[in-house]
Amino acid sequence: MMILRIDFLSLVIALSQVLAIAALIDPNDYVVLRSLKDSWTHTPPNWDNDDPCVWEGIGCAGNRVVSITLASNGLEGQLSSDITGLSELQIMDLSYNKGLTGPLPTSIGNLKKLTSLILVGCGFSGAIPASVGSLPKLQYLSLNSNNFIGAIPPSIGNLSSLSWLDLADNKLTGSIPVSDESGPGLDMLFHTKHFHFGKNQLSGDIPSKLFSSNLMLVHLLLEHNQFTGSIPSTLALVKSLEVVRLDRNSLTGPVPPGINNLTSLQELFLANNALEGSLPNLTGMSSLNYIDMSNNSFDPTDIPPWFSSLQSLTTLVMEKTQLRGQLPVTLFSLPQLQTVSLKKNRINGTLDIGSSYSKQLSLIDLRSNFIDAFEHRSGYTPQIILVDNPICQEGDHESYCSIPQQTNSSYSTPMDNCSPTPCALDKTSSPNCACSYPYSGTLYFRAPSFSSYGNFSLFTSLQKKLMTTFNSQSLPVDSVSVSNPTKNIDNYLLMSLRIFPSGQDFFNRSVISSIGFMLSNQTFKPPPGFGPFFFIGDSYPYFAGSLAGAHHKSANTTVIIGVAAGGVVLLLLLVVAGVYAFRQRKRAETAAKQSNPFALWDPKANTGGVPQLKGAKSFTFDELKQSTNNFSASNDIGKGGYGTVYRGILSTGQLVAIKRAQQGSMQGGLEFKTEIELLSRVHHKNVVSLVGFCFDQGEQMLVYEYIANGTLRDSLSGKTGLRLDWIRRLRIALGAARGVQYLHDLADPPIIHRDIKSNNILLDDRLSAKVADFGLSKPMGDSERGHVTTQVKGTMGYLDPEYYMTQQLTEKSDVYSFGVLLFELLTSRTPIEKGKYIVREVKQAMDTSKDMYNLQSLLDPIVSYSTSPRSVERVVDLALRCVQESGVDRPSMSQVVKEIESIMEAAGVNPNVESASTSASHDVDSKGFNHPYSNDSLFAYSGGFTPSRLEPK
């Protein structure tokens, strides 16, 4: 017995020694982290542990430190120069720790593997060290909202991998450095997409050399500085620009005439300068959402015609710009218009906003002009201000002759069908009515594309996108709340954000750091329309232990815990000995199953042989059950004839959509096997990817990549709230065409989709089209390239009449369906409405001798307002060729792709650039909204023609 005890004790000692050796960190890294701990106060409690690789906020690979992420941890102190000893460090995020002060160490350039240096919202000061330019792998440099002084180091121009450069909201001085014979400059940052330098004290000219056609710049934010001189004409060379903010400087001279070459530009802020000369001509800038040129010294100018031509415009602010003349009624009918503010100009005559003004129009502010009449019509909903105009003589008490009291939107995320209960202490009730301690802060949107904050669906979409991102990162977040949207003096949109924990009433430090990093390094992408943003997080005082005020353990407590831990170790060793054989057997079974993931596939049950897959994974029922929280109703995102669609998060963190067949609609095993084999071979950016499937426990499930913005049909009908202007519709048509062309020409074997329709075209977060739903698809062997004789299947309205009559399916059958899809993009109508077929309607109405072929009554208003009517006509021509009665007269899909590319190029649009993610859009009430993976069709047809099915449901 004594010998057994000695052997057992020896085993415990040996095991402890092995564990201690395995946990050893690199000695140099250990010294550095101990130095950091000594330099800071309020470090996490577990930083007393002897192994820094288990410290909160410290990430290790092997025995080396590769990341430090400690956002909103309440740290105080300075960043020790010893930090440069962490030679393997890749990520450092210390954001939202206002107590971190002092300069950055000049030796920071020794961190040669650093990819992210993120210090947002701290208290660092002094000059930005030039050695920052010696970080060859740096991609994110976010030093905004600190107290840095001095000049921007020219050495930053050496950072060839840099994508994000944010130095805003500091006290930087001097000019923007550009390269010369003596060294580098920011003009060398060809791959950087973001120059955020606003709210500093930068001065001098904006150097013309800063801009070139080689730049990939998307956001140029130079607002609220002290720049002088003129706007360089080279700015027009940067065709990728989407947001330009040059407001609140001292710029002079004319606006360069080439600025209207920036056809991707969505927000243009030039206000509060001393710009001169003619008002710039912005004709052709069809993507412009927001224009503010107020308070400049332009020449007196008649109301320019381009005011009424910008179909994407939401906001026109031209205060004190010497505009004169009468406003055209067509200005107010721009479909997205929300705000018109033209105060302190020389506008005269009669104000008439017409009867077809934009449904989104909320404010027309024309105070201090010369308007002497107002065309009254009943039912005006926009707020109109005509104070200090002749029409508002003394004693006139019309509502438009008084300045309304300004109020901010009181929006706050509503409760989710529950009643909040009073919360104890300083807990807060979440949107799900659970009391907890939320993590809070403020979101700053630097250039939103909208100006009306009364459309609450915009903020609902923001909330949903936040939750989607948290879910995709597998963070324990129960819900989020956004509230109090306000505009500050810098024209930033500010919103309060609260994030509520799931599973307990507080977050731990690692989760807070993960949330902070997600927001500081731009992992979170806001919905279209919100534009560039940053977040300032509050300190989080509610960590475990902090709630009771117990930050430190006493020596006696440590002893007790140590004894208890020792007992647990002994007990665990005994348990391990008992279950070792059982676990080994289970591991062997699991390994065998993993080596043959189709062990449950039964060829005898008419299922065919084991599927031959390329890239798709076989999931067990239990895996998908866990990923959907037991197929909970909260993850139910759509229903269709096939069954129910669930949102799921795989163990890898990937967000997926899972189509679970209901019992009555399951395919035979052979058909299911054929479908997944087919889908697993399809890999193209314009085709939805199959992640995997489940054929387990009597279940049939397909696991797809999750596509954020639903079906094209839902967007065209207005269900999703996404705004699809003509250019975006062209891009969607091109993406869908490329997807179908891939199926016809490059898939192995070639595939006829057989059900091309708007319900089967999905839109991702950049509004790129993806072809989906291959339930009716037909692969073609070498002997079948001419045609396949098969039972007629498809959707009425899209169905090729030649295929219907002959039962001979060809690739041209997909071309016919695609032609109908083009008519949908043109009209936003379903193919069959009230018994009328869109193809016949177009043919009967069109007159090629008239503008847009006399189809304005059929076209969607957004399309009929297109600034490129010839491109609309060419798409009509293409659609008509696609729906020729005989398949041999129709183009191939490769010819369709080339024609759409040609149409876009002729319209001045690059067909190889994706849709912008910052386009104006908003979500709407999702009740009744079918998820893109639901298998409901518009009048699905599978043999047995029934005339009544031509009628809409």
Write a brief structural summary.
22% of the residues lie in helices and 20% in strands. The chain has 15 helices and 51 strands. It is globular, with a radius of gyration of 32 Å.
Characterization of this structure:
Among the domains are: 428-546, Alpha-Beta Plaits; 603-705, 2-Layer Sandwich (Phosphorylase Kinase, domain 1); 712-950, Transferase(Phosphotransferase), domain 1 (Orthogonal Bundle). The chain has 953 residues and is α/β, with parallel strands linked by helices.
CATH class bucket of the domain at 712-950: Mainly Alpha
Q: Return the CATH topology of the domain at 712-950.
A: Transferase(Phosphotransferase), domain 1
Q: If you average the pLDDT, what whole number results? A: 83
The radius of gyration over CA amounts to 32 Å
Provide the low-confidence segments as ranges: 1-23, 547-570, 573-610, 916-953
Helix content: 10-25%
What CATH architecture of the domain at 712-950 would you give?
Orthogonal Bundle
Number of beta strands:
51
What key phrases describe this protein's structure?
15-stranded mixed sheet, about 20% strand, Transferase(Phosphotransferase), domain 1, 8-stranded mixed sheet, single chain, alpha/beta, about 950 residues, Alpha-Beta Plaits, Phosphorylase Kinase, domain 1
Question: What's the layout of helices and strands?
Answer:
Elements: H1 2-22, H2 27-39, E1 40-41, E2 58-61, E3 64-69, E4 76-78, E5 91-93, E6 99-102, E7 116-118, E8 123-127, E9 140-142, E10 147-150, E11 164-166, E12 171-174, E13 194-196, E14 201-205, E15 219-221, E16 226-228, E17 243-245, E18 252-253, E19 267-269, E20 274-275, E21 290-292, E22 301-302, E23 315-317, E24 323-325, E25 339-341, E26 346-351, E27 363-365, E28 370-374, E29 383-385, E30 428-429, E31 435-436, E32 439-445, H3 456-472, E33 477-487, E34 493-501, H4 509-520, E35 533-537, H5 555-595, E36 617-618, H6 621-627, E37 636-639, E38 643-649, E39 655-661, H7 669-680, E40 690-696, E41 699-705, H8 712-717, H9 726-745, E42 751-752, E43 761-763, E44 769-771, E45 778-779, E46 788-789, E47 794-795, H10 801-806, E48 808-809, H11 811-827, E49 832-833, E50 836-837, H12 838-845, H13 861-864, H14 869-882, H15 893-906, E51 940-941
Parallel strand pairs: 3-5, 4-6, 5-7, 6-8, 7-9, 8-10, 9-11, 10-12, 11-13, 12-14, 13-15, 14-16, 15-17, 17-19, 18-20, 19-21, 21-23, 22-24, 23-25, 24-26, 25-27, 26-28, 27-29, 36-40
Antiparallel strand pairs: 1-4, 2-3, 30-31, 32-34, 32-35, 33-34, 37-38, 38-39, 39-41, 40-41, 42-45, 43-44, 46-48, 47-51, 49-50
Helix pairs in contact: 9-11, 9-15, 11-14, 14-15
